[in-house]
Amino acid sequence: MTFDDFKFDASLMEGLYSMGYKQPTPIQEQAIPVILDNKDLIACAQTGTGKTAAYLLPIIDHIVRSKTRHLNCLIIAPTRELVLQIDQQIDGMGYFCSVGSISIYGGNDGMTWEKQKHALREGVDIIVATPGRLIALLQNGDINFEHLQHLVLDEADRMLDMGFFDDIQTIINYLPKKRQTVMFSATMPQKIRMLANAITTNAEQINIAISKPAAGIVQQAYVVFDNQKEALLKGILKNEDFNSVIIFSSTKDNVKLLEKNLRKVYPSMRAFHSDLEQAEREDIMRDFKSKKLRILIGTDILSRGIDVDGISLIVNYDAPPDPEDYIHRIGRTARASKAGVAITFINQRDQGKFSKIEDLMGYEVDKMPIPPELGKGPPYDPEANKKLGFKRGPAKGKSNYKGKRRSA
C-alpha cells in the first residue's frame, strides 16, 4: 500500500511528498480509512508507530474538501512538547493546502496569551492544546466549538496519569455531541476504556501496541548500588560514539541534581523539566534536535514528548516504574531503521520492576560486568530482593571506565 491508495487531495499529497512520506505504517493503514469514513475510533498505538499522521492526514483531507472553513478539529495532548510537535506536523502536512492551526499550552507570558486569543478570533482550522490552558480559554468564552467536527485525544493514558480526567470531561461538555471522536492511547487500562465508552459512539477499535522494542536496539543492564551509578554513567559517556544521548531519571529533583553533578564534566548537557520557562524549554529542545546539545536529562514526560531521530544512546539512570514506560523510553533510539543502545541501571529496589520488563519482552537483557574500579554490585535476584531492604554499596570512587560498546 502507498499513500496514493487513500486518494487524498492533491495539495495534501504535495505536502506529504515534501516531508518524505513514502509508505504508510500499520497504524496508518488501519486508522486512516476509518477516520476518512467519519467513524469514531479507539486505537492502541505507541509513540513511534506513526500515529500522529494516522489522524492528521484524514482530518486535513476533510478540511481541504469542506465547502466552508471554520474551527474544524480539536486535538488534546498531555504536554506542551507534544502539542508543539503535533502543531509542527500540521504546518508541514498542511503547508500546500493552507490548513492553519494554533498551539495552546500553559507557561506563557501575557503577550502569548493575547496572541492565542487573537488567532482564535481571526479563525483557525485546528486547535492543538493541553487541557488546562484550553479550559481557561473556554471559561473566558474565547473559543466557539459550534462547528467542530473532529475531536482527537492523543496519549490519553498519559493524560489520565497526569490527573486530567476531570479536565477532559469538562472540555467534552463544551463540544457538540455530533462529532467524530478519535482516541489514541499507548495502553488501554480500565479507566481509559471507561472514558472511551463515554465519549465515543460505535467506535472502531485498532490495536497496534508494541510489546517489544525495535530489533535495532542493543539492550544492556548494569546491576548496581545507587552510589555506583554516577561514576558508571561518566564512564559510559566517555564513549564519543554516543553523540546524542537521553538520560531518564525518576523525579524532577533527581534530574536537577544529576545535571548539577555532571555538567562541569559534560558542558553539552541540559536538564529538561517543568520548572524551566517555556522559552527555555523550547531552546533546549531546538539545540538538542540540531545536535548543539549532546546530552538531555529528563523524566518520563520526555519519553512520549520528544520526536528526534538519530539518538544513539538511552540511559535509564533509574529503572522505569512499569514495563510500558521502558518500551517508550528506549523507543527514542533506533528509529527510522537505525541502530541504538539502551542501558539500564538496576539497583536492589528496582530488580522486581526490571524482571517484569523482561517478562513482557519475553527475554532477558544482558547484565554487563561493572568496571572493577567501581567495586562489586548487588546480586541480581529479583525474587529475593522483593523481601530485602535497600543496602548501600561500596564507597564511591573515581572511575577510569572508558565505556566501550559491547555486543548484546
Number of domains: 2
How large is the count of helical segments?
A: 16
CATH H-level superfamily of the largest domain: P-loop containing nucleotide triphosphate hydrolases
**Judging from the principal axes of the Cα atoms, what is the shape?**
globular
Secondary structure tally: strands? 14
Largest sheet: 7 strands, parallel
Mean pLDDT across the residues is 84
**Strand order across the largest sheet:** 3-4-2-5-6-1-7
Poorly predicted ranges = 389-408
Molecular structure report:
The protein has 408 residues and is of the alpha/beta class. The protein has helices at residues 10-18, 26-36, 51-65, 80-93, 110-122, 131-139, 156-161, 165-172, 190-199, 226-237, 252-262, 278-289, 301-305, 323-330, 351-361, 382-385; strands spanning 41-44, 73-76, 101-104, 126-129, 150-153, 180-185, 204-207, 217-223, 245-248, 269-271, 295-298, 313-316, 340-346, 366-367. The chain folds into two domains: 3-207, 3-Layer(aba) Sandwich (Rossmann fold); 217-385, P-loop containing nucleotide triphosphate hydrolases (Rossmann fold, 3-Layer(aba) Sandwich). A seven-stranded parallel β-sheet has the order 3-4-2-5-6-1-7, sandwiched between helices. Strands 10-11-9-12-13-8-14 form a seven-stranded parallel β-sheet, sandwiched between helices. Strand 10 (269-271), helix 12 (278-289) and strand 11 (295-298) form a beta-alpha-beta unit. The longest helix has 15 residues, at 51-65. It is globular and about 70 Å long. The model is unreliable at 389-408 (pLDDT under 50).
